[in-house]
Amino acid sequence: MSDEHLFEGQSPIIRLRVWALGQMVWGAFMGGIFAIALGVIFLVVWGIGQMLPPESKEAPSPYGALEIVQPLQTEVV
After folding, report:
1. 20 to 30 Å CA-CA from 69: which of 22, 28, 46, 57?
2. Beta-strand (E) ranges in the chain?
3. Angle at alpha carbon of residue 40, lines to 34 and 44, rounded to 5°
């Protein structure tokens, strides 16, 4: 084995840049894995929705209780 250290001849700035780049690449890799996992989950939910019968997709809106019906105002001349 060599007695010479690998990082001995490098400047601390270069080592910091290499470390920062490595951290950014690792973060991008982890973000990509998260995005792929999220896409797979969405595809599974979509696939299950496609297997449901069409009648299950004809339910009334769940937001019906939240809708505010305002009467039409007619102008009196």
Report:
1. 57
2. none
3. 145
